[in-house]
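Follow-up to my earlier ticket, as requested here are the two runs.
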Amino acid sequence: MSLHNRLTLSIMLVSIAVFAAASWLIFEFTRERIHAHQRDRVELIAEILENGLRTLMIEGRGKEFQRFIESLVAEDIEVVRIFSENGTILNSSVPGEAGRRVPGRYLKAYSSGPGTSLYSVEQRDGREVYSHIVSIKNELLCQKCHGSRDTIRGVLDVELSGRASGQKVAAAARRILLVAAAATALLFVCVRWLTGRLVQRPVDAALEKLRQSPAGNALPHQPAGQDELALLSAGIDALDAELLKAREDLSHCTIDKNLHVERMASIGELAAAVAHGIKNPLAGISGALQVLAEDFPADSPRKEIAGEVLKEIGRLDTAVKDLLFFARPPELSLIPADVRAIIEKVRNTLDPEAARQNVKITSASDNISDIMVDPEQMEKALTNIVAHCIQSMDRGGELAVAARRGGTEGSVEITVSDTGGRVPEEKLGDVFKPFFSTKHSGTGLGLAISRNIIESHKGTVIVESREGRGRAFRIVLGRG
């Protein structure tokens, strides 16, 4: 699946989940409002009937109550009835129901005491029925005719059909689904357009530059199950391999040195142009994935996938930066610098990594504050060498960095020695070659970049393998 499709699918899956949750909450809120309205209505009808019955009784027209409840029956009122303590129906809006008995659950109002009301919602024949049962107190005025023996004269039962409310709930659900579907479709169009313009187009442009480079013939087709990021990584590896091949050819060529130098310069410019073109798409992809990953739940497998992709993007970004620095090193900015401060800065930077490798870094330097160097580039050169030594000590050990005045006036010698494994003599000359590495991590350009920086300062760097003691890198910088 292409990167464009993967990003679109991931964003849409998250969006659909968010829309579904929001739609469900809105639907539940609407349904609760409709149910609350029905409850208020059935309670209001019960209150009107109770007040009407009380008025008729006071006026001595109790026999007219049957006609009164029949006049209030509307389309959505299922039944209005009054029943006695033993459950016998005294009055009912349903013809022929008087004299029958109500189910036992209706008699709870008696056991709950006078003035008690019971509200319930039942399912009958596929529709909801709202029921409100209220006990009628045997008030003082009622006792003139009915005596004072009973505290409750009867129970009023009002049942309201939920057919209309069910239709409202269904209509609300249809509207919510329609709005959610329209919003999802609009979001899909926007996401598809944005990911195509901000991600896919820059990636395609970078791939096209790779195909037009001298390494284009070595660029593989897109592997099955992988996206353009894998192709970019393979392209950079192919470009790195081509650059290495060109440098090796140049080093072994003695007949037409100028031609090889020109070719290397062209390849370096092309590598820098391609790497520069890759940086912006990588930044866009990384930013898009970071925003996307924030929306994933912490336990979502998609968050882990996004993290792995971001990790690979970081590796690509490091490779691109090293490639740019190697192909087009910046100009030196020489100033009087303190070598001890540079070494301490390198040490502070790499101390956490050294601790993870169980490596102890020590430093000892003379007071050298007048050497003419570019502090930033010299720091980078030392950082690459020290990091290489740390990575070579799989079982831990000690690493010493020392600086002292050289044998000639104005010269400085910096030594980086470790207790790691011994490098065979035949491979000592290869450690500064581009892409020489015994590790799966890194770009293999660190030591090559360090040598270029040191040589641009008119200095030299050599590596020595010490039997039983590891290796030592000696850096000699000339006059300021």
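Run two:
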Amino acid sequence: MYQIQTLNKISPVGLEVFDRTLYSWGDEMSAPDAIMVRSASMHDLDLPDSVLAIARAGAGVNNIPLDKCAQAGICVFNTPGANANAVKELVLLGLLISSRRVVPALNWTQTLKGKGDEVSKLVEKGKSNFVGPEITGKKLGVIGLGAIGVLVANAAAALGMKVYGYDPYLSVDAAWGLSTATVHAKSLKEIYENCDYITLHLPCNNETKGMINAVSIGSMKAGVRLLNFARGELVVTEDLLEALAERKIAAYVTDFPTDEMLGNDNVVALPHLGASTPESEDNCAIMAANELKNYLETGNIVNSVNLPNISLPRSGASRICVIHLNVSGMMSKLSTILSEAGVNIENMINGSRKDYAYTIFDSTYEVEDDLAAKLATIPDVIRVRVI
């Protein structure tokens, strides 16, 4: 029986994907085959040798040590697109509250408590302090056109905004889903110089960390409104606060508050609410469970973030799954041992992702455990599994 350890509260709808006759799950497992996680940090965890896979019920995987997992032969999955609609709706809210000054208006209105019959007059007198522009007809720059970015771009266009989209790695699927009304920006400079609103929807890595800084802000239109529902580290906080003080940036809406931002009237800081909807939690859990189920039972990899994505229809009596380093001569070494053991290969597939590779062999014969152990002795082989 497969054991699934849950590090966070996982939606019961997702867990019901697992066949109860084949799987057990819970937050305490002595030798889990797989782990499901949401936001819990795994960087300091000692992972048991039994762990074959980790599924993050969400898109970001900053809480998982990807390289460490790859080195141990642990496949890590995420759930791209499962929470996209939830984030999109929050971004639309962010566009509106960055413009109409709803948050300070709400706070000010509460101060009128106890004023009795004066409230109506005070409201009429004070409302001019919260005037803000409409978004219709304004230009929105969407940086990153993945699942969320495409939904945001399409929704903003439907609301009457002129949308500029920038993504040097735009996938074919994303391009098909993008509204034809979206202007294809050829550079970030084009976004910065033209857009009244800018929203970030890209991962944080060595190339993007701190991309919103004094230099990039200097290229933006005066009074731009910036939204960040992607990752806090994309923005250099000190440079942002200086730009807010100088009114270069009119408002900053973020799902990733820091102590320095709190108390700033021009910052709308939300407590990481992007995917906090019951629908999103269900969708992410269902996708994560299906990814683990597929990998554990068939060896196929879909939506991995640290190993190649490979799927092969099952044929034969046994399936041999090998995670190994992406080095020359490996296929020859694996095939030689299988041939010497008299194993007839009916089908196979191989793929690589940077330093790592994954190979699946389907054999017409039942493969013994001692053969798997022999394959595991090959230098640069990380993990061998027979299904």
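The only thing I checked on run two: The chain has 13 helices and 16 strands. Let me know what else you need.
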